[in-house]
Amino acid sequence: MVCIKCHETIPESALYCPVCGKKQGISGKSRPRKRAHGTGTVSIDDRYRNRYIAHAPIGADGRTRKYLGAFPDAESADRAIKDYIRRGSPNLYNATVGDVYEKWSETHFTRISEKSADSYRSVWKHFTPIAGMKMSSVKTVHLQSIVNSHSGNGVARCIKALANYLCKFAMENDIIDKNYAEFVKLPKSEKTEKKIFTAKQITELWRYSGDRNVQAILVMIYLGFRIGEMTALTADDVHLEEGYITGGVKTNAGKNRIVPFPPNITEIKGFVEKWLSDRGADGRLFPMTEHTFRSKVFYATLIKLGLLDAHIDRKGAVRFHTEHHLTPHSTRHTFATLSAAAGMQPERLQKIIGHASYHTTADYYVHTDKEALTAEMSKLFR
């Protein structure tokens, strides 16, 4: 409690102030001193064990008093009011997890793409069991329970990532003092081998290589481009006389990298040369979205050739009959597998494919000229 004269904090049961010696007046049950106008109130309700009730200062409307909680002693109630005023965030002091998500997303979503924002909105649905809890009451065990309720490692990682963002936002606004999301344990991941194109499937693709969509798949297999990199390719990226393409849109290591045409598979360069005359108004070789390319070029072609166990429903959606199947990213794995089997040097393969995970010792190859890379591509054959 606080001395009625010098206002220093003194023991709850003290009859005299040990600082100034002032008698505190009432023995037995102490009453909280009246707070200055506009600084909140502490009242007593003897019906409850935590009988000291704290309310924040009256709001801007002149009527509303925000309830801050019930405490075992006046000192704790007083401290809660002081903390509330010090933090200067009356709307967040008693914020629920849902409130924190709304406040965080208001700013964060303006700095990311709409696609990324939709991903967070989808992940947020998993937080329903704790959305109404006070953020200040959420601990690791609550976040862990959400992660444990989802067996998929991918979903669990997304849940932890969002929880981490929310905890950091709450710390920045003095709602919590610790990032409890850091202590969440993810389920043990079971690594599944990525399905790649077999030699028989590649041979089948070459049988129908007069088809533009089949050509696109073959180019991805022999140049290692991601689906987003294929749809982003423009005429300016193609250097036919020099024998290479510059491309890459994802990582720093993969952006604007040199990808030579394999000299022993001249058809690949021929396909790209034909596409130049059919390019879109914006100069792109495949003027379409990734979604359209994935469904109408990649999957539709493989289904048509009988290389994919799936079908396209009446709404145009691809319905797979097996869980483990070829995907557009399978072309990159196929390229890496073919290149490694052909004896391509690992450092140069990583440079061509644009991985950011190569060792620091491989940094020497950042400035490797295109002749050296072309020499590696010469190791590929049909």
Order of helices and strands: EEEHHHHHHHHEEEHHEEHHH
Structural classification: mainly alpha
Radius of gyration, whole Å: 32 Å
List how many beta strands DSSP finds.
8
Q: Total domains, how many?
A: 3
Q: Which stretches of 5+ consecutive residues score pLDDT under 50? A: 357-368
Q: How do the strands line up in the largest sheet?
A: 1-2-3
- Estimate the helix proportion, in percent: 25-40%
The gross shape turns out to be elongated
CATH architecture of the largest domain: Orthogonal Bundle
- Ends apart, CA distance between termini: 85 Å
What's the story with the biggest beta sheet?
Answer: 3 strands, antiparallel
Measured by DSSP, the beta-strand proportion falls in: 5-15%
- The top-level CATH class of the largest domain is Mainly Alpha
Number of helices: 13
By CATH, the superfamily of the largest domain comes out as Intergrase catalytic core
CATH topology of the largest domain: hpI Integrase, Chain A
Average pLDDT, all residues: 82
Any overview of this molecule?
- The protein is mostly helical and 382 residues long.
- The protein folds into three domains: 41-87; 97-183, Tyrosine recombinase, N-terminal domain (DNA polymerase, domain 1), CATH 1.10.150.130; 199-377, Intergrase catalytic core (hpI Integrase, Chain A), CATH 1.10.443.
- Helices cover 39% and strands 9% of the residues.
- It contains 13 helices and eight strands.
- The protein has helices at 74-87, 97-108, 114-124, 140-148, 153-172, 199-207, 212-223, 227-232, 266-277, 290-304, 330-341, 346-353, 370-377, and strands at residues 41-44, 52-58, 65-71, 238-239, 244-247, 257-260, 310-312, 318-320.
- Strands 1-2-3 form a three-stranded antiparallel beta sheet, covered by helices on one side.
- A hairpin with a 5-residue loop joins β7 (310-312) and β8.
- The radius of gyration is 32 Å and the shape is elongated.
- The model is unreliable at 357-368 (pLDDT under 50).
